[in-house]
Amino acid sequence: MTDQDAKVTAELLTAAREALEMFHDVHVDDDGALSFQHAEVPCAVQAMRLAEGLTVLSLTCVVAWDLPDDRDLAVSAAERAGQGLFGTLGVVHTERGMDVTLRYAFPAEGLKPEPLSTLLMLVVSTASQLRNELLAGTGSA
């Protein structure tokens, strides 16, 4: 990573932090990544410069973890993923059940704080809504 890449990604993470702080307490990790919690959904934001003029933010939300490894629940999550405009759902099968994440990456260089906060909140709101739906489907809500 060049000094210019580091500068651009740091500026973008600062803009994302300021946008998120309109709604959440934000923690800045040692590597500059941001973490916060929306409702009961932990989220992390990272920035990457893919090319000059193309710096993206990557938002990952851990929607649910240790869900019952139930085929119907996995199918429901997959169907829900197809309906979403803001993010890609991932289902990981573990020894303890299923974990579900929502990831969204988008070009964000030059976005002002208000539209950036709106876009980030659309994603995390989708994640918390999905969490509620999944937990209701398992009887854990």
Automatic annotation (TrEMBL):
Pfam families: YbjN. InterPro entries: Put_sensory_transdc_reg_YbjN. The lineage of its organism: Bacteria, Bacillati, Actinomycetota, Actinomycetes, Pseudonocardiales. It comes from Saccharothrix carnea. This is Putative sensory transduction regulator. It comes from the Bacteria.
